[in-house]
Amino acid sequence: MKLTHLVFALASAGLMISAQASTLIQNVRVFDGEKNLGVRNVLIDNGKIINADFKAKISADMKLVDGRGRTLLPGLIDSHVHAYQDQDLPLLYGVTTQIDMFTAVPLMQDMNQRMAAGKNTRNADLISAGVLATAPGGHGTEYGMQVDTLTKPEQAQAWVDRRIAEGSHFIKIVMEHGGAGFKFNSLDVETVQALIKASHARKKLAVVHIGTFEDAKAALAAGADGLVHLYIGSSISEAQSKEIIALAKKNGSFVIPTFSVLESMAGMKSQDLLNDTSMTNLLSKTQVIPLNSSYGKQENQQWMTAPNTLTAALHAAKIPVLAGTDAGNTGTQYGISLHHELASLVNAGLSPSAALQAATSAPAKAFRLKDRGYILNGYKADLMLVEGDPTTDITATRRIVEVWKDGEIISPLRAEKLAQVAKEKAIKTTAVQLPSDGRISLFSNEKLASPFGFGWVPSNDAPMGGKSTAQLKVNVVPELAQNALHIDATVNPGFAFPWAGVAFFPSTQPMQAVDLSAANTLKFKVKGDGKNYTVGFTMQGSFIPVTVVFIAPAEWTEVSLPFSRFKGMDATIVTMLAFNAGPETGNYAFDIVDVRLVKE
C-alpha cells in the first residue's frame, strides 16, 4: 500500500495523531549518528523517519525542505542534566532528549506519561534516574528536597526497587566526599557495589557520580556501567589513565566528562556562547545568569588538564565518551551548553564526527534508547538541520535552520521565544532612586530599616534543612556617627554549604526583583573576628548568590566592591543582598555599618 493511501486509511479509522503531510528534506548532507553519508533525501511522516535514503517520486502532498549546503543530524542528546526548570530551552537548541541524573519524582512521572502518550512534542524527552542514591548528609541532600538515603549494602535492593516503582529509567549513585570548604558524607564501596548489583538484577543501568580519581577507580571496580563526571585536576599520570581505561574496558563502561560544569569549577565561562548573540538571543535575563557565572572565583585553566588528558586517552582506547553538560548548575544552561560541550570534546582531542557521535548514537547506545540517536528508517523523527558541515567544523551545530521533535517542527517555538526575549529587552525598567549618599543601612533598636525595600532580616540555611543560626544586635558607634549591626553567627553542620548572617531585600516583598542599576559599587565598613565572610547579590530566577569574599578585621575597615567583581551579576534584577558567615562551621562575630550603593 502506498504511504499516502495508508495515511488516508488510518485517518478514516480515527487512528491518526496528526494529519500533517509528510516532509521530504532534499539534497541534504546526512550525518546518521556515526558518519557523514553524503547528500541524500530523507522522508519523515507521522513522527518517524520513513525513508533515510528516499529515491522515489515526489508526491504533491509532501512538504519539501531545501537541504542544499546544510547537514541533517539526529536530535542531540545531553547525557547529563538536572531538569528542574527552564525546560523551554533544550528543543530550541536542537536537544531533543535529556538524560536526567536527579530531579523531582512528580516531574519525572509527568514526563513519563507524556512520552508514553506521544504528547511530548513541545519539550525534549526526559530519560531520568529520578532520586539518586546517596548517604545521609551526602551530595544530593543539600537542595531542600527529601531524599531516600542509604547507609548499608543490605538496603540496596529495596532502594532500587522503590526507584523502579516510581518510574526511574536507570539508577544514579553518588560517591562524593566534597572539596575545599565543604564536606559530604559518601556511600561506602560495599554499598555502591550492592546498588550496582541490585540494579543489574532488575536489568537497569547503574551510573556513578565521582569527584576524584580514587572514586572513579572504585566505582568502575564495583561494576559501574558509566561515570557521569570526570574531575578537575592539574595533572594525571599515564599510569592513572591506563588504570581507568582497563577498568572501563573490563565492564564495557562509558564516561561522561561534563566539561561545561568542570570548566565552571575551574572559574571558566563559556565565553564562546556568551559572545554569540545568535545563541543567547533565546535566553531571558534570568536564563543568562547561570551561563554567565562560574563556581570557581578565579580562573585556573590548569585544572582542566586531568579531564582533557583522560578524555583523550579514553577516546583513543575506544571507551565510549558521551556529551553531557550537567545543565542546571552554575556555568551551564539547558540546550545551549551542549554546543559548548561539543567544542570542548573537540578541544580535548575528539574529531568533530566523534564529538557528534558523543551527542547522538553513543548516548543512545549507552542508555539503551533503541528509537533515537540515528537517522534510520523507523526511528523517531527527532532531527536537527544546520547550515554548513559540523563533521568538519563543530561550531556549525549552532547555525540551526530547523529542529523536528517527533516529526513536528519547532521553529514556531523559536519564533515565540525570540519575541518574548525581545519584548523583555524592550521593557524599560525604572531603577530604584537611591539616597544621595547611597546609604541603605538605617539601623536602630526599633527597626533594621532602609530607605527603600523590605529591609534587613537574619538569614540562615534553615530553609534548606540546615541548623545554622544568626543573632542580630544594634550597637552605637560614636566614632562613625552611625549605628552598627552586630551579627553573632553559628554555622553548624546540616547543610552542605551552611551559612548564617543578614540579608537585605530591596523590594517591598522578599525575593521580588528590583533595578539597582543606578549604582555600580557596593561599599560598607566592617570589623570583627578576623575571619573570612561573603557578601553577595541574588538575582531573579536564582537562589544562588554571586559572591565576593571579604575579611572582618579587628578595626573598622571600608570595603569597596564594584559590581563587576560579582561574576554574572545583573543589577536590573536583584532580589537580595546578603552578608554571611560560612561554609566553614563554627562561631562567628562581625559588625557592618554604612552600607551604601553608589555610582563611581
UniProtKB/TrEMBL annotation:
Residues 71-409 form the Amidohydrolase-related domain. It holds the Pfam family CIA30. This is CIA30 family protein. It comes from the Bacteria. Residues 456-567 form the NADH:ubiquinone oxidoreductase intermediate-associated protein domain. Keywords: Signal. GO terms for molecular function: hydrolase activity, acting on carbon-nitrogen (but not peptide) bonds. InterPro entries: Amidohydro-rel, Galactose-bd-like_sf, Metal-dep_hydrolase_composite, Metal_Hydrolase, Metallo-dep_Hydrolase, NADH-UbQ_OxRdtase-assoc_prot30. SUPFAM superfamilies: Composite domain of metallo-dependent hydrolases, Galactose-binding domain-like, Metallo-dependent hydrolases. The lineage of its organism: Bacteria, Pseudomonadati, Pseudomonadota, Betaproteobacteria, Burkholderiales. PANTHER family: ALPHA-D-RIBOSE 1-METHYLPHOSPHONATE 5-TRIPHOSPHATE DIPHOSPHATASE. The keyword Signal applies. Residues 1-21 form the signal peptide.
